[in-house]
Every structure is written in C-alpha cells, then in structure tokens.
Amino acid sequence: MLLDDLIEVIEMLRQRIANHGPTLSVSEARTRAALIDPLLQVLGWDTSDPSIVIPEYDVSGRKTDYALLGENSLPAAILEAKKLGEPLQLKLEQMSDNAIRVGVKFAGITDGDQWELYEVLTHDVLDEGRILSLRISATPPNLCALKLLHLWRPNLASGQVESAGEPVAVPSSGVDPVPPVSKTIDWVPLSKFVAKKTTNRPGLIRFPDGSEHRLQVWYDLVLQTVEWLWSKGALNVDSISTFSTSDRHLFHTDAVHPSGKPFFSPKPVAGTPLIVETNMSSSSSAKKTKALLSRCGQDLSRVHLSSERK
Description:
By secondary structure, the chain is of the alpha+beta class. Helix content is 30%, strand content 20%.
C-alpha cells in the first residue's frame, strides 16, 4: 500500500540524513540521488522515465531541476533542488519565476529534508500560496507521510492537490497511525507561554509556515528554532555574532565561548554548521527562543507550543 511504502522510505531518509548529513550537504547531486529521487519514486514520480519526469527542464534558456509531467505530458509542477542544509529561501524567487514562465499551477523546493510546495499562479504573495512545509528529520514518519501526499502523482498530475485527513493504511511496523492534529493537540501562542519549574515541557513547536517539530527536551526549543530560522534564511553565518555576549555564545560554528571556555553541553543543529550551547534551564530555553525569534523579525503570536493530550 502507498502509505506503507511511503513510511518505509521516510524512515530510510531520516537515517540517511542522520548518518550521512555532512557528506550529502557537500553536493546537490548527492542530495538528489540519496534523498530527493527516492521520495519522488515512492510518490509515483519515476525519475528515470522521461514521460513522467524531465530533469533539467528548460525554462526560457535556464534550467529547473525537475519537471513533473501531468496527464497531458506537460509540466503539472516544477521542483527545485538544493543540497542538504542549504536555505531554501535563496531559491524561492527562481522557483516562482520558473513556474510562472512555464505556466504551471504548482511549484516545489527541497533540500531533501525540508520540502515546500506552493500554488503560485493564484496568489500575489508567495507565502499565501504555501500548501506544504515540513522537515522529514523532525516530523513523525506517519504524519510526514500524510502531509507528503500533496506530492502524490495522482494529486499533482490531475491539478487537484489534496492530503489525507487520516491514514488510509496501517503502517506495516504495527505502530498506531498519527491521528489528525486538530483532535489531539492544544496549541498555545509562544507570546503567552511562560516556563516555570512546574510547567510541563511542550511536545511540539509549530512555526508560522505550519511546520511542526518534536520537542524531546527543553533545549529543543532553541535547537528547533535555530534550525527553522536558518532554513528560512533569517539566520546565517554573518549574523550569528549578534546573538552572543562578550563572554558567551548561545550558538556558533565553534563550540568555544568568547571567553575561551568550551561549550559545557554542545549540540549540533541539523542542516546547519551551527552548534548550540544547551546548558540552560526550562525558563532560559523559553526566554532565549522568544529573543531569537523576535530579533529575527518573527511574530511570537504566530509561533505555537503544544501539549499533546493522552
């Protein structure tokens, strides 16, 4: 069944990202072969069949990485690829422009981990047309599979993108499928969230683009926020020094504070060259997360934390 196969591939991709991220982040070609093509294949887009997918499709003299062909053998969608960890924001304008030039309704962009899909022709502001945004490495496989059905070939090829409201197949692993989010999760705006000693750790953080990320420990608030800001181009190597004091880094490319002391508890941020100093309390994690988002121009009322009900 589709969901069984899709979940199996998603789990494989999560392992590849975790085990081979540095190698894949060196090259777009490696990312495409190891991460992007396998997912397209299981979603019905045989990248080896030119009647289904045309790589390096010509758009007015320049190339788009994939043209996904519809029922009339014309592009139903285009997909731009980047190497793992490279901010998608850098190629969004090119993606949108190529889609408009070809006259296709849907356009996507991915680094093999982060996947975004847009309906470009009916929205003046690109963000208003975003219909998919997820990170494979940070989204539970069952929920990830449901969201990725936006990219399922029968959906895109027909021009009617839909996702499943709940699983249509039980995963072969025997794990219970993830129920619809709206029925199981209470969301609290970050602007109203205060972490105290008695406050339970949130289970998820949801960013303004709709992407949701698991929180296993309190400092994951900062880790996931740094990763998301980096993926959106709101944070880069040139700007990280502005988040440091004269003697301490919150995160940096080297796990050493300005004082010369090494990070007490360094944790790398997936898809970035950054390392976070995670030696912080629950209250500090929440405060630093708010400060990070605010200084990067994000509205805290549009970032939500969850408490999953049993």
